[in-house]
Ribonuclease PH
Amino acid sequence: MRNDERKINSLRSVNITANYITHPEGSVLIEVGNTKVICNASIEDRVPPFLRGQGKGWITAEYAMLPRATEQRNIRESSKGKVSGRTMEIQRLIGRALRSVVDLDSIGERTVWVDCDVIQADGGTRTASITGAFVAVVLAFGKLLEAKKIKKMPVTQFLGAVSVGVLPDGTEILDLNYEEDSQANVDMNIVMTGQQEFVEIQGTGEEATFTANQLQTMLKLAGEGIEQIFEIQRDTIGDLAERIGETKE
Amino acid sequence: MRNDERKINSLRSVNITANYITHPEGSVLIEVGNTKVICNASIEDRVPPFLRGQGKGWITAEYAMLPRATEQRNIRESSKGKVSGRTMEIQRLIGRALRSVVDLDSIGERTVWVDCDVIQADGGTRTASITGAFVAVVLAFGKLLEAKKIKKMPVTQFLGAVSVGVLPDGTEILDLNYEEDSQANVDMNIVMTGQQEFVEIQGTGEEATFTANQLQTMLKLAGEGIEQIFEIQRDTIGDLAERIGETKE
Amino acid sequence: MRNDERKINSLRSVNITANYITHPEGSVLIEVGNTKVICNASIEDRVPPFLRGQGKGWITAEYAMLPRATEQRNIRESSKGKVSGRTMEIQRLIGRALRSVVDLDSIGERTVWVDCDVIQADGGTRTASITGAFVAVVLAFGKLLEAKKIKKMPVTQFLGAVSVGVLPDGTEILDLNYEEDSQANVDMNIVMTGQQEFVEIQGTGEEATFTANQLQTMLKLAGEGIEQIFEIQRDTIGDLAERIGETKE
Amino acid sequence: MRNDERKINSLRSVNITANYITHPEGSVLIEVGNTKVICNASIEDRVPPFLRGQGKGWITAEYAMLPRATEQRNIRESSKGKVSGRTMEIQRLIGRALRSVVDLDSIGERTVWVDCDVIQADGGTRTASITGAFVAVVLAFGKLLEAKKIKKMPVTQFLGAVSVGVLPDGTEILDLNYEEDSQANVDMNIVMTGQQEFVEIQGTGEEATFTANQLQTMLKLAGEGIEQIFEIQRDTIGDLAERIGETKE
Amino acid sequence: MRNDERKINSLRSVNITANYITHPEGSVLIEVGNTKVICNASIEDRVPPFLRGQGKGWITAEYAMLPRATEQRNIRESSKGKVSGRTMEIQRLIGRALRSVVDLDSIGERTVWVDCDVIQADGGTRTASITGAFVAVVLAFGKLLEAKKIKKMPVTQFLGAVSVGVLPDGTEILDLNYEEDSQANVDMNIVMTGQQEFVEIQGTGEEATFTANQLQTMLKLAGEGIEQIFEIQRDTIGDLAERIGETKE
Amino acid sequence: MRNDERKINSLRSVNITANYITHPEGSVLIEVGNTKVICNASIEDRVPPFLRGQGKGWITAEYAMLPRATEQRNIRESSKGKVSGRTMEIQRLIGRALRSVVDLDSIGERTVWVDCDVIQADGGTRTASITGAFVAVVLAFGKLLEAKKIKKMPVTQFLGAVSVGVLPDGTEILDLNYEEDSQANVDMNIVMTGQQEFVEIQGTGEEATFTANQLQTMLKLAGEGIEQIFEIQRDTIGDLAERIGETKE
C-alpha cells in the first residue's frame, strides 16, 4: 500500500476543467491529485524567423511554477533574471511532445504558444502539463476550425503522459506523488500516443541504477495509466475527439 | 450607464476564496469582476540583511501576470530576463501598503513574502492584489497565532484599495474595468485603512490633466468603495477580524 | 522652523542654467538647494516601433544618479546590470508628465530623449528633474522652430513639480530636503500645469497614513510652490515662454 | 550500409588520450569518429552551500562547444549572456550520470568540476562527453589516492554512453554521426554501468514516434556498443581499473 | 595649424575645479578644452574579499559618459544591462594608473572608489579622467590626513596623462580633440609620473601602423605635455603637493 | 638564466599546426611553450549593420579560455552571464591588430570571425592568439582564393606579436611565461608587421613604472622576437606567403 493508499498501478484522480481562463484560445485547469496546472494555448498569426515563408506553423511551450506552488517558496525566475535548467528541460519536453502529434503543415504560418503554469505542486507536474496542454491545444484548434481559419483538425493522435518509478524497496509504481518522488531510486516520464507508440522516454536513476526487467515493468505500468488518461481527455473535449486524426480537408 | 451596466459609483462583484492553495501560510483567490488574482503569503523565519539582529520583521511583495492573463499574450518576464518597470512599480506599491498596517516590531525576525499572481486580468489588478494580499497576510498571521509563535495579531488596521478615474466625457467613476481603463483620461489608485485614512494616492493623467474638483469627487468615490471592500474582507477572515488592531500581547 | 531655517511653505532657492552642455538640443543644470540635476533633451528623427507610420512623435525619459551624488556611494546600475525599481518609477513618471503638456501630433516622427542625471542629491531629485526637463524640452523645441522643422511650439502648458510632506510632529511642509525626507511620515510628489491642473499626484505613507485634511493642506502648499517655479522657468526660457500654448501653425 | 560505410551495429573508432591538458587533476581528449571533446576533471576542496558540514562531496559538470566546432559557427554563450536550454540539459545529464557511479560519502567535502568542451562536433557529443568524463574523473581520483587524500577509489562501477536511433527507413542504428542524427526519426541516448544496468535513458521522437519493438532493438544495440567502450576506457586508465568498485578503505 | 588653431605641441586649456561635489571625500571637475569630467574619490572602510585581513588598501575606478556627452546620444549602459568593452578598458586603465602611485600598504583596509563621469566629451576623456582622478584622490587622502586616520600622504608621485597621435599627413600632434581623433591614423595614450617614468603606454593604429621614429616623436610630445599638467595639478592641490612622496610617517 | 633556462632574448618554442579543426575555413593550433591556443577563422557572407551596403568587409575576434586552462579553475563566462573586462580588452586587441593588415575593401561584404580559444595557458596567451589568428586568417582567405570568391590575397603584410617585460631585478626579457609574468614589474605586448612597423604597443607597470631606456630595450627585444615568429608563420602557410601584399587583382 502506498503513502496515499493507492495501489501500485493506480493513477491519482485526474480532473480537467475546460475553458478555465477567458482570454486564451484554449485553456484548461488540470488537477492530478493535488497537482494543479493551468494550461493555456494561444494562437499567434506568425511564426519564428527560422520558419518564415514556408507556409507551416510551430508549437512552443513555456512552463513555470508560482513561487509558493511548493512546500518551500522558490525565488521567481524573473527575479533571478534567468530560467533554470530544470525549467528549460521541461518546456523543451512539452513542446517536442506536442509537435509530434500535430500536423504543422496544415495550420498555416501560425504559432501555438502553450503556457503551463503550476499553481500547486505535488509531483508529476511535467506529465500533468503535457496531458493538460494536449487538451488546451485541441480546444484552441477547435476555435480555428469554428472560425474556418483551418480546414481540418491538425491533431493527428491523442497524447498523454505519466510518471513511473522504482521505490527504494524495489517496487515499481505508477504516477508518483511528491513524497514518493523524493524517495524513489528511479524516476521515469513516459509520453505516449493514442496508437500506443512512444514519443518520449526519460528515465533517470540519480545515485541509483535500474535493470532491464525493471524498465519493462515500468513501461507496462505507464502504458496502462496513459490509456485511462486518454479517456478523461476524450470526455473533456467532447465532439472534437472524433476529428483527431482526420485526413480529409 | 457604464459599458457593463454598472452605476458610476458601483463596485464590480468582489469574491474572496480563503485557503485557495495548500502550501502557503495564507492564500486567497480574489475575483473582482473578471479580474482574478492568487494572493499567497509565505512566512520565512529570517529577514533581509539590512534588518538582521534588530528583532523586527519585514513584508515584501512580488506581482506577476500569467502570459495569457490578458487579451494579447505577454512575453514572460523570466524569458526576457528582467522585470518591467510596471511590475516593479506595482510590487513596490503592494509591499509599502501592507507594511503600513502591520506592526513589524511584533513579528520577530520573520519575512512575509506576498505573491500576487494575476491569472486573469480585466482592469484593477493592482488594487485587487492589495485587497486580496491583505486577507492572505491576516490568514498567515492567524497560523502564527495558532502555533503560538507570536502573541498578538500584528495587523493594526484593515487595508483595501480601489481604482477611480475620469472618463473622456468628464464623468468620474469607481472601479474601472479594462475597457474603461483604456479610455479613461485619468487613472487613480487609492489605498485606505479601516480608519478612513490614506496610505497611498497615485493619480495620473497621461495626455490629460485633472482639476481639484475632479480630484475631490474621485476621493469620495474611492472612500465609499473601500468601505464595501472592508465588509467582504471581514466576512472572509471570520474571527480573526476581531483581533485586528489588538494592543495587548 | 525647519532644519535649514526655512518656513514651512518656503521653497529652497531654485536656479536653472540654460544651455549647460553643448551637444544636446536642449540642456539645463537645475539646482534646487543642494540638489543638482543635468537635464538634457535630445531630438532623434525617428520613433519607437509601436508608433511608426502614424506621423506623430514620442517623449521618453531616463533618470540616473552619479554613484556619489549621495552621502553613501551607490553601486552603478550599469555594474549591477539592471535598473532599480526606484529608477524605473522615476523615469516613467518624468516621461508621462512631459507627454501630458506636449502636442505629440505636431512634432512629426521624432523622439525626444530626456536624460536627467543627478550629480548631487539633497532630496527632491525627481521633482527637480521634471521642472528642469520641462525647460530642456522647451529649449530643444526652440531649436526645431528656429530650424523651421516644426511650425508651432508643441508645448501646450507650463509644467512644474514639487514635493510636500508631513513631519512626524504633524506639520505639513513644502519642498523637503534629504534630512526632512528621511524623517517624514508622508512624502508626496505633485506635478501641475500652468493652468493649475494636476498631472500626477503620488503620495505615500510608508509605516504611516494621512488624513483627508492633511491631504488638502499638502495640495495647497504644492500649488503655491509650483507657481513660483513657473516664474523661474519663464525667466530661463525668455521669448519662448510666449509661444507655449500657441495654437496657430 | 551507412553513410560512412559502417554496419548498423558498429561504433565509430573511439580514442582516448589521457593527461591531455597539464593543469587539471584528470584530463582526457576523447575522439569518437570526428567528434572531439576535451574532458577535464578539477578537484576543489569545498562543496556547494547545500552540502556544507555533511562530510560528503559533490560532482558537477559543465558542457560547451567552441563556436566553430560545428559546420555553422554558433554564437558564444558568454556573448549571449546566457546558457541555452540544450547546454543545460546536457550538463545536468553528465553530472547526474557521474554521480550515480561515485561514492560521494567517501571523498570528503570536495567538489569535482567536470568540464566537457567540444572542439569538433560530428554527432554524439553528449555521450562522448560522458564516456570521456568518466575517465577524467577516475584519473583525478587516482591523483587523490596517490596523494593519500582519500583511502579508496570512490568510483563504484564503469560508466559509458552511446546514442542509438531509428533512420527514416525504420532501421535501428548504433552511434549516430551528425548526418545520421539530422535525418533520424528517433534519437536515444543510453548511459549504462559496467554491471549492465541503466543510469539514464533519454529517447525522443520529434515529429515521429517509436514502437515497443523498436525500443527493444535500440536498447540491445546500445548494450553491445557500451561493452566495447568499457574496454577502451579500461585500456586508458590502466591499473586504476582494478580499483573501481573496491569496498575496503 | 590645427583645426582649433593650436600648434602641434600645444595642450588645450586645462582647468581643474576642486571640491566640485559636496559628498565625496575628493571631488573635481576637470575641463580639457571642451571635454568635461567629474572625478569623485570615495573612501570606503573595507576592501574587496581578495584583500581582506592583509592590512592593506585598494583603489578601483569606474568610468561612464552621460548619454548626451557626445554629438550622438548613446544608449545608457544601465539600460543595455552591460558595460561595453571600451568602458571596461578605460576603467581598468584608470585604476591601474592610480595604484602605481599610491602606497596601498599605508592606507589600512580601505578602498578608494574613483568615479569618472564624462558630462561633455571632445576627445581625450580617458586621459582627462586620469589627470583629474589623481587630484581627487590626493584631496580624499587629504581628508584622511586631516582626520588623522592615516599618518602620511600615501601618494608617492604626481601622475598625469595625455594623448598623442599621428594625423593622416604624418604629423605627430599632442592632445587630440574629437575631430582630430576621428581622423588620426595612430592614437596613443601615455601616463607618466612626476619622475618622468612611464606608467602606461597604449598605442594603436587601427587600419594603420607607425614607425619607430614616429613613436619617439610622440613620446617626446607626451612628456612635454604632461609636465604642464603637473603644474596645473600642483596649483589645484596647494599645500598637499608638498606631502606627495613623503616617507616619514 | 631564466626559470626555464632560456636566455633573456629567447623565445619559447613556437609550433603552429595548420588545419587543426575540420569545419572552419582557417584553423590552427598554436603552441608557444606550454601555452596552447586553437585559432579558428570563419567566413560569413554578411557584415554587421554599420557596414551594410558599403561593399567592404569586417574582421572581429573573440577570445576565451577553457575553465581549467589555468592552474586554478576559472568560472565559465557563460555561467557568469557576462564577459570580463580582461576578455573584452584582449578580443578588441586581436580584432584591431588583424584589421590593420587586411584590405577590407577587397573582401566584399564578408565578416571574418576569429575565435581564439586557449586550451592551456602558460603566459602570453594574447600574443600567441594574434600570431596564430594571423595564420588562420591567411588560410581562410586561401580558401576564398581557391574558390575564386576573391581575386587577390587581402592580407597586406605579415603580423606577429610577443610580450616583453622587466623582472624585479631590472632585467628586460622576451616572451614571458606565466611565472615570469606574475613576478614582472612591467608587462608589455607588442604587435608588429612584416615591414617592422608597430600596430599596437600596450605597456603597463602596475605598482611599478619604467624608464625611457627600459622601453627602448624592450622594443628591441620584441622586434627580434617577432622576426623569428614571421619565419614560423611563413613555413606554416607555404605558398600563400608569396601572395601576402599582392596588389594586382
